[in-house]
User: Which sequence fits this backbone?
């Protein structure tokens, strides 16, 4: 069960699929990295169609941070697609596993969170999940329901279902072991407990990012150990961020938070490259792929790619705000593109005139430090009332003015 060796795509063996099953399979495969075993998933879809019994779709979330970005919604979108097909989506809050700490992709032990931090983050997750999923039709669960009940005896029995040698096949453990980086014994428990979640939920399929493949396969293994029909697994790729290079991440500052203001969200989507846009259409849009393919063909034939990007920006902004907010954001973006000043910029009053430009930008909240402010001045990225500031030694006199840093940061400041 090594995460190093991608399993070959398995083609369904059924000679003829119904239109409903074929459509469900197409929806399942859209944008995914792997669907394993695909033939088993087809059988599950056929059974669900024949019996009218919805399949159980598991997705586990450890509430390790309160804020989500568009990268997280790649899996949420797939959950919504499967929910719209009539299946039971199970958002699983890993309040028990969070106290262990997921070692996936880590070169050090992840510190566990307190119960208070977990509960606060979980509440925020639900508020944000509701923007994509119909939580009223979902089966929301917490893995402390069965994790706490396992007790010492149950945990020892669970640990007996897997070997250390197989556990060390996992990439991050292999690298840490080879480099003599410490691995705590409790970290081996994480994939076991996540896998046991699938047993407790009797899940038919589990979704996750490509970095979760080992853990998802553990669920299949343990279900077989406990005499259940093994779940299928569906992994989704990690979304490339605004820079077009690295995965979307707050640490890389190439992300779009799903609670960001509509105008900011729209403008950030418009900033991505024309090439990256099509990947985002596949992973983030709910438009049928046939429609996306037609739009791409029109663009390759000469249509302005900006038209397609506006469609994507409006769809995403509408999802997390409203259609009216998306229309207003488009108007705001066009106004900025013409050199205009947005209507909804923050207003504040500051004292200390004459104030050095770097200090003023920091005090206005437009940069994180005076040094960053001066670097923006050096790069021509600072304007006062539309005029570029080129003198890093400028001391700004008392006045009311509009400060601008880059293309998207504005503030109306009264300096006294």
Assistant:
């Amino acid at each position: 069960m090594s995460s190093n060796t991608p399993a070959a795509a398995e083609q369904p063996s059924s000679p003829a699929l119904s239109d409903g099953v074929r459509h469900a399979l197409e929806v399942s495969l859209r944008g995914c990295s792997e669907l394993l075993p695909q033939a088993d998933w087809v059988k599950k879809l056929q059974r669900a169609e024949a019996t009218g019994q919805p399949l159980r779709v598991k997705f586990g979330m450890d509430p390790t941070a309160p804020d989500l970005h568009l990268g997280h919604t790649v899996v949420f979108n797939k959950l919504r697609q499967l929910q719209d097909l009539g299946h039971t989506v199970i958002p699983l809050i890993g309040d028990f596993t969070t106290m262990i700490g997921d070692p996936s992709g880590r070169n050090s032990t992840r510190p566990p969170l307190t119960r208070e931090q977990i509960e606060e983050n979980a509440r925020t997750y639900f508020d944000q999940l509701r923007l994509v999923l119909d939580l009223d039709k979902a089966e929301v669960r917490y893995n402390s329901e069965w994790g706490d009940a396992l007790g010492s005896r149950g945990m020892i029995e669970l640990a007996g279902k897997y070997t250390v040698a197989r556990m060390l096949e996992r990439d991050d453990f292999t690298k840490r072991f080879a480099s003599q980086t410490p691995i705590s014994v409790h970290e081996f428990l994480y994939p076991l407990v996540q896998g046991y979640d699938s047993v407790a939920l009797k899940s038919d399929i589990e979704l996750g990012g490509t970095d979760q493949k080992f853990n998802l396969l553990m669920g299949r293994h343990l279900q077989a150990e406990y005499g259940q029909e093994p779940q299928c697994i569906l992994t989704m790729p990690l979304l490339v961020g605004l820079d077009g290079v690295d995965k979307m991440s707050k640490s890389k500052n190439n992300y779009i938070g799903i609670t960001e203001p509509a105008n900011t969200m729209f403008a950030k989507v418009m900033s991505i490259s024309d090439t990256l846009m099509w990947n985002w259409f596949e992973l983030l849009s709910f438009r049928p792929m046939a429609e996306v393919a037609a739009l791409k063909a029109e663009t390759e034939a000469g249509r302005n790619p900006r038209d397609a990007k506006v469609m994507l920006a409006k769809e995403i902004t509408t999802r997390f705000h409203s259609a009216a907010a998306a229309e207003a954001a488009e108007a705001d973006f066009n106004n900025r593109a013409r050199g205009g000043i947005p209507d909804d910029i923050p207003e504040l009053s500051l004292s200390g005139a004459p104030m050095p430009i770097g200090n003023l930008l920091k005090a206005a909240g437009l940069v994180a430090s005076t040094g960053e402010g001066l670097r923006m001045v050096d790069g021509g990225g600072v304007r006062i009332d539309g005029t570029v500031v080129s003198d890093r030694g400028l001391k700004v006199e008392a006045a009311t003015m509009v400060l601008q840093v880059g293309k998207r940061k504005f503030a109306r400041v009264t300096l006294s």
In short: Residues 347-415 form a domain with the Structural Genomics Hypothetical 15.5 Kd Protein In mrcA-pckA Intergenic Region; Chain A fold (CATH 3.10.290.10).
